[in-house]
Amino acid sequence: MLFVAVLVAAVTANPTIPEAARAMYNPKLFQGDIKGIAGQEPGDPIPDDKAEILYALSGPRFTGFSQKERAAILGDQYLWSGGVVPYVLGSSVTSTQETVILQGMADFHSKTCIRFVPRTTEANYIEIITNDSGCWSYVGSIGGMQQLSLDTNGCIYVGTVIHELMHAIGFYHEHCRNDRDDYVTIYYEYVIDGYAYAFDKDTYWRYVGENYNYFSIMHYGTYAFSANWGVDATIVPTDPNIVLTEAYDKYEMAQSDANQINNLYGC
Ligand SMILES: [Zn+2]
Q1: Exposure winner among 84, 157, 183, 244, fewest CB in 10 A?
Q2: pTM for the full model?
Q3: Out of 41, 69, 164, 210, which one is annotated catalytic?
Q4: In the annotation, is 246 catalytic?
Q5: Which annotated residues bind Zn(2+) (predicted)?
Q6: pLDDT tens digits, 215-244
Q7: Annotated binding residues, as ranges?
């Protein structure tokens, strides 16, 4: 009987996805935490001029932007002018949360030319909110006010703040780089049904001077979108000595992240 009981326990074990990871894997958002893409509206046709397409097609499972090109890096018109990103904090943001948010911004200020500044009258700016579901951002400057969500439940981590802010200034996910197959193996058989699109590679891409980096703040962890968290790895490095971690387990951007930011923004 004891043997049977143990066996049943093993079969029914269903490791829980940590709240901080679940908050970044929102089922209705592109790759889990991208709310939208600068210059793209849901249903927009693919531009005819392929030379203008810097970015990859996303997978068919994502209905919002499924027929659109996906950026490795956004076109210049969707960058923040002068690298200055005005922001406001939503009314839900507590002083404790503000401290974490400012820590994330400080990482940009110490390593890059990006400057997050409290908004005065700027037309284009970010509103950071903590009372929506999940961690998410738009990619690039979409024009006007754009929100960036750091859910009180699961997103108040310096690494998550940096990750979402890096989306906001125009970056996508490292593990979706076109050259990622040289560095990781994606185990689709372990990916939650319906989420395979989250691992689509960039098809049209533009990178800014840095090679693939396992430790990028834009790289997901080894159990990303795993149906069996903590057991079945979905992203496995070709180098067995590498341990992939989630953004929330990181405390600063990688130097390669900073270099790409500075290259993209010309500073
Ligand atoms: Zn992300």
Answers
A1: 84
A2: 0.85
A3: 164
A4: no
A5: 163, 167, 173
A6: 999 999 999 999 999 999 999 999 999 999
A7: 163, 167, 173
